[in-house]
């Protein structure tokens, strides 16, 4: 059994301090093979926010894989935003462009879908390039055939129907199609502050898009939450754990078959 903790959108500077501390305590109880944070660690990309995020990450058990989000670029320091948008992230958190993790039965590739500036008015939306997708598939393709193959991004590549916010990822649908057809099992994301699980309508229909909620005060119709993912030989189980104000309790559970059980012959 592989166990992954999937958190997102803590937004230090606007975090729900009790929920963030409660998540750290729950993860500290152990039993996770990997902790994943899919972006937006900060609210405005300020140094003090990154310092708080780094301290919180250090309180979590390792190993960890952390991707940046659109809020992790400087909001006010325009020179940095244009010419080194993820410099602060790299200095305080880790690599911004690509993150990888490999262990028996598990292969994870993190990609940056955020951009400092874009040729459109809303810079908070996402982008993913064909090169990012190709390189991810090549790296995951080298993993053992029976490994759980996971991609981590900040923005949902395909919109969640009825979701409280859009990702509008340039290149997102093409990337989702390629990842599904390339044998990826899970694509983990954040951004919309609400948990969800849905299959991509591509390939054999077995690749699952999984979104985590927020641990900030910026709630969008859902309580602060994070996901616990358990992958066995036959099934993957995703439980959204919601903060009640005193502890975490299951909010919703999804169970999906592992790809090899659903794959169509030929």
Commentary on this structure:
This protein is an alpha/beta fold and 266 residues long. The chain has a single domain (2-262), classed as 4-Layer Sandwich (Purple Acid Phosphatase, chain A, domain 2). It contains seven helices and twelve strands. The strands form two sheets. The chain has a six-stranded mixed beta sheet with strand order 3-2-1-10-11-12. It has a six-stranded mixed beta sheet with strand order 4-5-6-7-9-8, with helices on one face. The protein starts with a strand and ends with a helix.
Under the CATH scheme, which architecture would be assigned?
4-Layer Sandwich
Strand proportion: 25-35%
Radius of gyration: 17 Å
Element-level helix/strand string: EHEHEHHEEHEHEEEEEEH
Percent helix among the residues?
10-25%
CATH class: Alpha Beta
Average pLDDT works out at 94
User: Strands across the major sheet, in which order?
Assistant: 3-2-1-10-11-12
Main sheet?
6 strands, mixed
Structural class: alpha/beta
By CATH, the superfamily comes out as: Metallo-dependent phosphatases
CATH fold-level name: Purple Acid Phosphatase, chain A, domain 2
Number of E-type strands: 12
Poorly predicted runs: 261-266
Report how far the terminal alpha carbons are from each other.
29 Å
Discrete helix count: 7
Topology (elements, then pairings):
Elements: E1 2-7, H1 17-28, E2 34-38, H2 47-58, E3 64-67, H3 78-83, H4 87-92, E4 98-103, E5 106-111, H5 130-141, E6 148-152, H6 172-181, E7 186-189, E8 196-199, E9 208-211, E10 225-231, E11 235-243, E12 248-257, H7 259-262
Parallel strand pairs: 1-2, 2-3, 5-6, 6-7, 7-9
Antiparallel strand pairs: 1-10, 4-5, 8-9, 10-11, 11-12
Helix pairs in contact: 5-6
């Amino acid at each position: 059994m592989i166990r992954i903790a999937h958190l997102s959108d803590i937004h230090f500077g606007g975090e729900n301090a009790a929920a963030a501390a409660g998540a750290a305590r729950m993860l500290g109880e152990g039993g996770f093979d990997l902790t994943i944070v899919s972006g937006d660690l900060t609210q405005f990309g300020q140094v003090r926010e990154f310092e708080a995020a780094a301290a919180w990450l250090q309180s979590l058990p390792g190993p960890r894989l952390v991707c940046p989000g659109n809020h992790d670029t400087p909001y006010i320091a325009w020179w940095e935003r244009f010419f080194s948008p993820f410099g602060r992230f790299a200095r305080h958190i880790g690599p911004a462009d690509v993150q990888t993790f490999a262990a028996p039965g598990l292969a994870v590739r993190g990609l940056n879908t955020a951009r400092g500036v874009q040729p459109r008015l809303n810079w908070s939306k996402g982008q993913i390039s064909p090169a990012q997708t190709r390189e991810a598939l090549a790296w995951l393709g080298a993993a053992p055939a029976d490994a759980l193959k996971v991609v981590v991004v900040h923005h949902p590549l395909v919109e969640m129907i009825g979701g409280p916010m859009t990702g509008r990822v340039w290149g997102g649908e093409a990337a989702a199609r390629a990842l599904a057809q390339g044998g990826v099992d899970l694509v983990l994301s954040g951004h919309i502050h609400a948990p969800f699980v849905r299959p991509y309508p591509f390939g054999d229909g077995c690749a699952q898009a999984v979104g985590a909620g927020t641990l900030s005060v910026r709630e969008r119709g859902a309580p602060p939450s994070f996901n616990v993912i358990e992958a066995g030989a036959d099934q993957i189980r995703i439980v959204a754990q919601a903060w009640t104000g005193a502890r975490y309790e299951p909010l919703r559970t999804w169970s999906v078959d592992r790809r090899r059980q659903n794959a169509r012959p030929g």
